[in-house]
Design a protein that fits this description.
Layout (H helix, E strand, L loop, with lengths): L1 H9 L3 E5 L6 E11 L7 H4 L5 E6 L6 E5 L25
Antiparallel strand pairs: 1-2, 2-3, 3-4
Amino acid sequence: MFVEKFFKEVYMYKRLLKCSICGNTGEFEYIGSRDVNKKGDVKDIIGNKEMWISYFKCPECSSIEVEFHPVGEKPDIPEEFFREVAVEEGNDR
């Protein structure tokens, strides 16, 4: 258990970002990415192409920052850290 937790903490993917809520600039932890057009939600706008959004957590205020990727391109997250999240995931409503 300790080794698994240590591995996840040490080898998490992080990206330098600036928080839109608290203004903190630093290493934000990667949470996951999702294709917003997976179910055709924006098909009328972008056609059948993928449109990815990646989520990152601010280390100061824990708000979630999003990064939009160009239409038709996958996120530039290293494969070993890439995690596809579902729309329902984390939805407490």
